[in-house]
Amino acid sequence: MMEEKGRENGVAAMKACYRRFDPAAYLQYNYTPPRADFTRKDSIVPWKLACLHRAFTEGDMSGELLVDIGSGPTLYQVMSGCEVFSKVLLTDFLEVNRQELRRWLQDEGQCSLDWTPYLQHVCKLEGRRPSAWTEKAAKLRQVVADILPIDVHCSQPLAPDALPSVGADCLVSCFCLESVSPDLAAFSRALGHIGKLLRPGGHLMLIGALGESYYFAGPGVRIPVVPLNEAQVCTSLKESGYTLIRLEVYTLTQDMRVGVDDVTGVFFVKAKKD
Ligand code: SAM
Protein backbone atom coordinates (compact mmCIF):
# COMPACT_ATOMS: atom_id res chain seq x y z
CA MET A 1 0.00 0.00 0.00
CA MET A 2 2.76 2.43 1.10
CA GLU A 3 4.87 1.24 -1.86
CA GLU A 4 2.03 1.90 -4.28
CA LYS A 5 1.49 5.40 -2.84
CA GLY A 6 5.22 6.11 -3.29
CA ARG A 7 5.02 4.96 -6.92
CA GLU A 8 2.01 7.17 -7.59
CA ASN A 9 3.74 10.18 -6.00
CA GLY A 10 6.86 9.65 -8.14
CA VAL A 11 4.81 9.49 -11.33
CA ALA A 12 2.67 12.50 -10.30
CA ALA A 13 5.85 14.54 -9.64
CA MET A 14 7.13 13.70 -13.14
CA LYS A 15 3.82 14.73 -14.70
CA ALA A 16 4.01 18.04 -12.82
CA CYS A 17 7.47 18.70 -14.37
CA TYR A 18 5.88 18.55 -17.83
CA ARG A 19 3.43 21.42 -17.14
CA ARG A 20 6.01 23.93 -18.33
CA PHE A 21 7.33 21.89 -21.33
CA ASP A 22 7.98 24.41 -24.12
CA PRO A 23 7.82 22.71 -27.56
CA ALA A 24 9.58 25.55 -29.44
CA ALA A 25 12.50 25.66 -26.96
CA TYR A 26 12.78 21.84 -26.91
CA LEU A 27 12.98 21.80 -30.72
CA GLN A 28 15.53 24.61 -30.73
CA TYR A 29 17.77 22.83 -28.16
CA ASN A 30 17.73 19.39 -29.79
CA TYR A 31 16.71 19.68 -33.42
CA THR A 32 18.92 22.46 -34.81
CA PRO A 33 22.73 22.38 -35.38
CA PRO A 34 25.02 21.10 -34.03
CA ARG A 35 22.68 18.25 -32.97
CA ALA A 36 20.91 18.34 -36.34
CA ASP A 37 23.74 19.13 -38.75
CA PHE A 38 23.06 17.24 -41.99
CA THR A 39 26.52 17.95 -43.34
CA ARG A 40 28.00 15.74 -40.60
CA LYS A 41 27.58 11.99 -40.07
CA ASP A 42 28.62 12.36 -36.40
CA SER A 43 25.75 14.72 -35.55
CA ILE A 44 23.04 13.09 -33.39
CA VAL A 45 20.02 13.57 -35.66
CA PRO A 46 21.60 12.14 -38.88
CA TRP A 47 22.72 9.15 -36.76
CA LYS A 48 19.16 8.58 -35.51
CA LEU A 49 17.69 8.97 -39.01
CA ALA A 50 20.20 6.45 -40.40
CA CYS A 51 19.29 3.90 -37.69
CA LEU A 52 15.58 4.33 -38.38
CA HIS A 53 16.06 4.15 -42.16
CA ARG A 54 18.00 0.89 -41.89
CA ALA A 55 15.54 -0.65 -39.42
CA PHE A 56 12.50 0.15 -41.56
CA THR A 57 14.01 -1.00 -44.86
CA GLU A 58 15.53 -4.38 -43.92
CA GLY A 59 12.51 -6.19 -45.31
CA ASP A 60 11.33 -7.77 -42.05
CA MET A 61 8.42 -5.42 -41.40
CA SER A 62 4.85 -6.29 -42.20
CA GLY A 63 1.39 -5.00 -41.46
CA GLU A 64 -0.36 -1.67 -41.71
CA LEU A 65 -0.27 0.21 -38.41
CA LEU A 66 2.67 2.08 -36.90
CA VAL A 67 2.23 3.87 -33.56
CA ASP A 68 4.70 6.44 -32.25
CA ILE A 69 4.73 6.63 -28.45
CA GLY A 70 5.38 10.06 -26.88
CA SER A 71 5.89 11.88 -30.17
CA GLY A 72 6.43 15.23 -28.49
CA PRO A 73 6.59 18.08 -31.05
CA THR A 74 8.75 16.01 -33.46
CA LEU A 75 8.15 14.18 -36.74
CA TYR A 76 11.59 12.83 -37.71
CA GLN A 77 10.90 9.46 -36.08
CA VAL A 78 8.16 8.49 -38.57
CA MET A 79 9.77 9.80 -41.77
CA SER A 80 11.09 6.35 -42.76
CA GLY A 81 8.20 4.34 -41.32
CA CYS A 82 5.59 6.33 -43.25
CA GLU A 83 6.82 4.66 -46.46
CA VAL A 84 6.34 1.15 -45.03
CA PHE A 85 3.12 1.42 -43.01
CA SER A 86 -0.12 2.70 -44.50
CA LYS A 87 -1.42 4.12 -41.22
CA VAL A 88 0.54 6.03 -38.57
CA LEU A 89 -0.73 7.23 -35.20
CA LEU A 90 1.17 9.92 -33.32
CA THR A 91 0.67 10.24 -29.56
CA ASP A 92 1.65 12.55 -26.73
CA PHE A 93 0.74 13.32 -23.13
CA LEU A 94 0.67 17.10 -23.69
CA GLU A 95 -1.87 19.06 -25.73
CA VAL A 96 0.81 21.69 -26.61
CA ASN A 97 2.81 18.99 -28.39
CA ARG A 98 -0.23 17.51 -30.12
CA GLN A 99 -1.08 21.04 -31.29
CA GLU A 100 2.43 21.57 -32.69
CA LEU A 101 2.12 18.32 -34.67
CA ARG A 102 -1.36 19.26 -35.89
CA ARG A 103 -0.06 22.59 -37.20
CA TRP A 104 2.43 20.80 -39.46
CA LEU A 105 0.04 18.05 -40.52
CA GLN A 106 -2.67 20.52 -41.43
CA ASP A 107 -0.05 22.63 -43.24
CA GLU A 108 -1.19 25.74 -41.42
CA GLY A 109 2.28 27.35 -41.34
CA GLN A 110 3.57 28.83 -38.07
CA CYS A 111 5.43 25.67 -37.09
CA SER A 112 8.20 26.00 -34.51
CA LEU A 113 10.63 24.07 -36.73
CA ASP A 114 11.09 23.69 -40.49
CA TRP A 115 11.14 19.94 -41.14
CA THR A 116 12.28 20.36 -44.78
CA PRO A 117 16.00 19.48 -44.22
CA TYR A 118 14.87 16.36 -42.33
CA LEU A 119 12.58 15.28 -45.17
CA GLN A 120 15.34 15.98 -47.70
CA HIS A 121 17.87 13.98 -45.69
CA VAL A 122 15.58 10.94 -45.39
CA CYS A 123 14.86 11.14 -49.15
CA LYS A 124 18.63 11.02 -49.69
CA LEU A 125 18.91 7.94 -47.44
CA GLU A 126 16.17 6.32 -49.53
CA GLY A 127 18.12 6.98 -52.72
CA ARG A 128 15.65 9.59 -53.92
CA ARG A 129 16.50 13.06 -55.15
CA PRO A 130 16.33 15.67 -52.36
CA SER A 131 13.54 17.47 -54.24
CA ALA A 132 11.32 14.43 -53.57
CA TRP A 133 10.88 15.88 -50.06
CA THR A 134 7.55 17.46 -51.10
CA GLU A 135 6.23 13.99 -52.02
CA LYS A 136 7.45 12.63 -48.68
CA ALA A 137 5.77 15.49 -46.83
CA ALA A 138 2.51 14.74 -48.69
CA LYS A 139 2.88 11.02 -47.89
CA LEU A 140 3.44 11.72 -44.20
CA ARG A 141 0.40 14.01 -44.07
CA GLN A 142 -1.64 11.32 -45.83
CA VAL A 143 -0.69 8.36 -43.61
CA VAL A 144 -0.91 10.06 -40.20
CA ALA A 145 -4.45 9.15 -39.28
CA ASP A 146 -4.60 10.76 -35.83
CA ILE A 147 -2.73 12.40 -32.96
CA LEU A 148 -3.86 10.88 -29.69
CA PRO A 149 -3.39 11.55 -25.98
CA ILE A 150 -1.30 8.92 -24.17
CA ASP A 151 -0.06 8.13 -20.68
CA VAL A 152 2.61 5.42 -20.56
CA HIS A 153 2.14 5.10 -16.78
CA CYS A 154 -1.37 3.71 -17.26
CA SER A 155 -1.67 -0.02 -17.78
CA GLN A 156 -3.82 0.95 -20.79
CA PRO A 157 -1.89 3.94 -22.21
CA LEU A 158 -4.37 4.81 -25.03
CA ALA A 159 -8.17 5.08 -25.09
CA PRO A 160 -9.65 1.56 -25.23
CA ASP A 161 -10.90 1.82 -28.83
CA ALA A 162 -7.82 3.61 -30.24
CA LEU A 163 -6.22 0.48 -31.75
CA PRO A 164 -7.51 -2.76 -33.28
CA SER A 165 -7.78 -5.43 -30.56
CA VAL A 166 -4.77 -7.40 -31.93
CA GLY A 167 -2.57 -4.29 -31.46
CA ALA A 168 -0.26 -2.27 -33.69
CA ASP A 169 2.17 -3.90 -36.15
CA CYS A 170 5.04 -1.70 -35.06
CA LEU A 171 5.87 0.79 -32.29
CA VAL A 172 8.45 3.53 -32.35
CA SER A 173 9.31 5.55 -29.25
CA CYS A 174 12.10 8.10 -28.88
CA PHE A 175 13.38 9.69 -25.67
CA CYS A 176 10.04 9.16 -23.96
CA LEU A 177 10.11 6.41 -21.34
CA GLU A 178 13.32 7.40 -19.53
CA SER A 179 12.38 11.08 -19.53
CA VAL A 180 8.91 10.59 -18.03
CA SER A 181 9.76 7.96 -15.39
CA PRO A 182 10.90 8.69 -11.82
CA ASP A 183 13.11 5.55 -11.63
CA LEU A 184 14.20 2.39 -13.43
CA ALA A 185 11.25 0.37 -12.08
CA ALA A 186 8.80 2.92 -13.53
CA PHE A 187 10.70 2.88 -16.86
CA SER A 188 10.36 -0.92 -17.01
CA ARG A 189 6.67 -0.79 -16.06
CA ALA A 190 6.06 1.81 -18.79
CA LEU A 191 7.85 -0.44 -21.30
CA GLY A 192 5.50 -3.23 -20.23
CA HIS A 193 2.45 -0.97 -20.65
CA ILE A 194 3.33 0.09 -24.21
CA GLY A 195 4.10 -3.54 -25.08
CA LYS A 196 0.38 -4.27 -24.67
CA LEU A 197 -0.25 -1.99 -27.67
CA LEU A 198 1.87 -4.20 -29.97
CA ARG A 199 0.79 -7.46 -31.58
CA PRO A 200 2.88 -10.59 -30.96
CA GLY A 201 5.62 -10.70 -33.63
CA GLY A 202 5.44 -6.91 -34.05
CA HIS A 203 8.53 -4.71 -33.94
CA LEU A 204 9.61 -2.08 -31.43
CA MET A 205 12.10 0.68 -32.31
CA LEU A 206 13.26 2.34 -29.15
CA ILE A 207 15.62 5.31 -29.11
CA GLY A 208 16.70 6.84 -25.83
CA ALA A 209 19.24 8.63 -23.71
CA LEU A 210 22.11 6.93 -21.90
CA GLY A 211 23.54 8.29 -18.66
CA GLU A 212 21.19 11.26 -18.60
CA SER A 213 19.92 12.65 -15.27
CA TYR A 214 18.12 15.79 -16.53
CA TYR A 215 17.26 17.86 -19.58
CA PHE A 216 15.89 21.34 -20.15
CA ALA A 217 12.52 21.65 -21.89
CA GLY A 218 12.54 25.45 -21.86
CA PRO A 219 14.37 28.20 -19.98
CA GLY A 220 14.59 26.98 -16.36
CA VAL A 221 12.38 23.93 -17.09
CA ARG A 222 14.62 21.16 -15.76
CA ILE A 223 13.16 17.67 -16.16
CA PRO A 224 14.72 14.73 -14.31
CA VAL A 225 15.58 11.61 -16.34
CA VAL A 226 16.37 8.02 -15.30
CA PRO A 227 20.06 7.54 -16.13
CA LEU A 228 20.13 4.29 -18.12
CA ASN A 229 22.93 2.03 -19.26
CA GLU A 230 22.81 -0.50 -22.10
CA ALA A 231 22.54 -3.51 -19.76
CA GLN A 232 19.47 -2.01 -18.04
CA VAL A 233 17.79 -1.38 -21.39
CA CYS A 234 18.45 -5.00 -22.47
CA THR A 235 17.17 -6.43 -19.17
CA SER A 236 13.98 -4.34 -19.27
CA LEU A 237 13.31 -5.42 -22.85
CA LYS A 238 13.77 -9.09 -21.97
CA GLU A 239 11.50 -8.77 -18.92
CA SER A 240 8.83 -7.15 -21.09
CA GLY A 241 8.84 -10.05 -23.56
CA TYR A 242 11.01 -8.73 -26.40
CA THR A 243 13.77 -10.43 -28.36
CA LEU A 244 16.53 -7.99 -29.18
CA ILE A 245 17.41 -7.78 -32.87
CA ARG A 246 19.96 -4.98 -32.63
CA LEU A 247 21.32 -2.42 -30.19
CA GLU A 248 23.42 0.45 -31.51
CA VAL A 249 25.07 3.14 -29.41
CA TYR A 250 26.09 6.69 -30.27
CA THR A 251 28.54 8.46 -27.98
CA LEU A 252 28.22 12.24 -27.87
CA THR A 253 31.21 14.18 -29.07
CA GLN A 254 32.24 17.18 -26.98
CA ASP A 255 30.57 19.68 -29.34
CA MET A 256 27.21 17.88 -29.07
CA ARG A 257 27.21 18.66 -25.33
CA VAL A 258 25.47 21.97 -25.70
CA GLY A 259 24.38 22.57 -22.10
CA VAL A 260 20.72 21.56 -22.45
CA ASP A 261 21.13 18.17 -20.71
CA ASP A 262 23.82 15.83 -19.37
CA VAL A 263 23.27 12.96 -21.84
CA THR A 264 26.42 10.97 -22.64
CA GLY A 265 25.08 8.62 -25.32
CA VAL A 266 22.06 7.53 -27.31
CA PHE A 267 20.85 3.96 -27.82
CA PHE A 268 18.88 2.59 -30.76
CA VAL A 269 17.06 -0.70 -30.28
CA LYS A 270 15.22 -2.84 -32.76
CA ALA A 271 13.35 -5.66 -31.02
CA LYS A 272 10.56 -8.11 -31.75
CA LYS A 273 7.70 -8.93 -29.39
CA ASP A 274 7.68 -12.64 -28.50
N1 SAM B 1 9.73 11.79 -29.05
C1 SAM B 1 10.19 13.16 -28.99
C2 SAM B 1 11.64 13.22 -29.39
O1 SAM B 1 12.14 12.23 -29.93
O2 SAM B 1 12.29 14.25 -29.23
C3 SAM B 1 9.90 13.83 -27.64
C4 SAM B 1 10.59 13.27 -26.45
S1 SAM B 1 10.42 14.30 -25.02
C5 SAM B 1 11.98 14.10 -24.25
C6 SAM B 1 9.39 13.34 -23.94
C7 SAM B 1 7.93 13.37 -24.35
O3 SAM B 1 7.17 12.54 -23.47
C8 SAM B 1 7.30 14.75 -24.30
O4 SAM B 1 6.73 15.03 -25.53
C9 SAM B 1 6.23 14.63 -23.23
O5 SAM B 1 5.09 15.44 -23.45
C10 SAM B 1 5.90 13.15 -23.26
N2 SAM B 1 5.33 12.66 -21.99
C11 SAM B 1 5.38 13.23 -20.76
N3 SAM B 1 4.73 12.46 -19.86
C12 SAM B 1 4.26 11.39 -20.54
C13 SAM B 1 3.47 10.26 -20.18
N4 SAM B 1 3.09 10.05 -18.93
N5 SAM B 1 3.15 9.38 -21.15
C14 SAM B 1 3.56 9.56 -22.43
N6 SAM B 1 4.30 10.60 -22.84
C15 SAM B 1 4.64 11.51 -21.91
Automatic annotation (TrEMBL):
Keywords: Methyltransferase, S-adenosyl-L-methionine, Transferase
Highest taxon in the source lineage: Eukaryota
Annotated binding of S-adenosyl-L-methionine, by residue: Y26, Y31, G70, S71, Y76, D92, N97, D151, V152
One biological process term in Gene Ontology: methylation
Single GO MF annotation: phenylethanolamine N-methyltransferase activity
UniProt gene name: pnmt
InterPro entries found in the cross-reference section: NNMT_TEMT_trans, SAM-dependent_MTases_sf
Gene Ontology terms: cellular component: cytosol
Family named by the database record: Belongs to the class I-like SAM-binding methyltransferase superfamily. NNMT/PNMT/TEMT family.
Protein's name in the database: Phenylethanolamine N-methyltransferase
Naturally occurring in which organism (per UniProt): Pundamilia nyererei
SUPFAM superfamilies per the UniProt record, alphabetical: S-adenosyl-L-methionine-dependent methyltransferases
